[in-house]
Amino acid sequence: MSWTILVGGEALVDLVPAAATRPGELGALLPLPGGGPYNVAITLGRLGADVRFLSRLSTDDFGDALLTRLELSGVDTAMIQRGQEPTTLAVAGIGPDGSARYSFHVEGTADREVEHPGPLPDEIGIVSLGTLSLVLEPGATRYERLLRDHAARGRLTVVDPNIRSAMIADPAAYRARFLSWLPDIGLLKLSIEDAAWLADGGDPQHAVKGWLGAGPAAAVMTRGADGLVAITASGHEVTVPTVPAEVVDTIGAGDTVHGALLFWLHNAGISTPDGLREIGADAWREALDFAARAAAITVSRAGAEPPYAAELGIHP
Fold first, then answer.
1. 72 within some domain
2. What is the pTM of this model?
3. Distance (Å, rounded) from C-alpha 150 to C-alpha 105?
4. Strand 237-240 to 228-232 pairing
5. How many structural domains is the chain composed of?
6. Taking the mean position of all CA atoms in its chain, how far away is CA 314?
7. Element (H or E) spanning 179, and its range?
8. 28 assigned to some structural domain
9. CATH of the domain at 152
10. How many CB atoms lie within 10 A of CB 94?
11. In sequence order, which residues have a C-beta less than 8 Å from that of residue 199 and are 6 or more positions away?
12. In the β-sheet with 100-105, what is the strand arrangement from edge to edge?
């Protein structure tokens, strides 16, 4: 059976400021499509995976543009809901090191009003969720139900918490909620900054190993310039370096890693936690190398612009 990947979560518009022409002035804001899950779906579509996107998009101009970009990137949009609520906006800034930082405008926006889609088609092998969609209600509870339902079917679930701490009103409650998801997560993908925040100041790598004991078969952690590491419940720990690139900004880099890993799993025919547990160290190294190469292309250009298959030597 040919499995399909379902990515669920927010789609939004990043307002990225251009450089100011004079000190004290603000540069023009360039609207760019974004949102962690949206970027993951775009990555998968461009790489050629069979991928569907679940979200609620506004019927405003931004929502129309977000939908068109999904279609042009090869993403199946049949499960997308539409509504008159406005599109979520994220004002992006770039730090001195090229890292992205955001302020969000989310009140009453379309993506947080997503409805549970009901029973998923049998061909959905992997469900991937994350970022603001697991924080903002009422959508967060609906995505959480989707996570638990898919895990109960014995299928693979992937979660990237992609922490946006400014949007989490009660950190202790969110950390407890994250721990409650662990029995239903097959693969945990996160950054070292996410792990440190979730561990409330504890050692990130030690925390990840502890979380694996609660359910996930594996975790992949991005560590900025220090590369990627996969840690498995069976005891493997595989590290690969970053791929050298001239960094324009890091917007969408982690999402590209996430999408590339899902693509690799899809190609390997893995759609269950048991299948994930069978991956050995050499295969994890191959998967991480692929994800690192994909992310290097994304960081070399402005905004979240994941690579196409041909850029990574993938041909039909």
1. yes
2. 0.94
3. 30
4. antiparallel
5. 1
6. 22
7. helix 171-181
8. no
9. 3.40.1190.20
10. 17
11. 206, 207
12. 29-34, 12-17, 89-94, 100-105
Q: How far is the C-alpha of 20 from the C-alpha of 38, rounded, in Å?
A: 29
E strands in 55-120:
56-58, 81-83, 89-94, 100-105
Profile the chain (316 residues) by mean pLDDT over runs of 10 residues: 89 82 76 94 97 98 98 98 96 66 88 95 96 96 98 97 93 98 98 96 93 97 94 95 88 94 95 95 97 95 90 84
Q: What tokens were used for 15?
A: 């307002």
CB of 15 within 8 A of CB of 30? yes
Q: Which range marks the domain in which residue 72 is found?
A: 4-10+34-84+116-310
Other CB atoms within 10 Å distance of the CB of residue 235:
9
Side-chain-side CA neighbours of residue 246 (13 Å)? 1
Joined together, the tokens standing for residue 303 give 């905004």
**Does residue 42 belong to any structural domain of this protein?**
yes
Confirm if 292 and 240 have CB atoms less than 8 A apart: yes
* Amino acid sitting at position 29: L
Has residue 16 been placed in a domain?
A: no
Sequence letter at residue 27: G
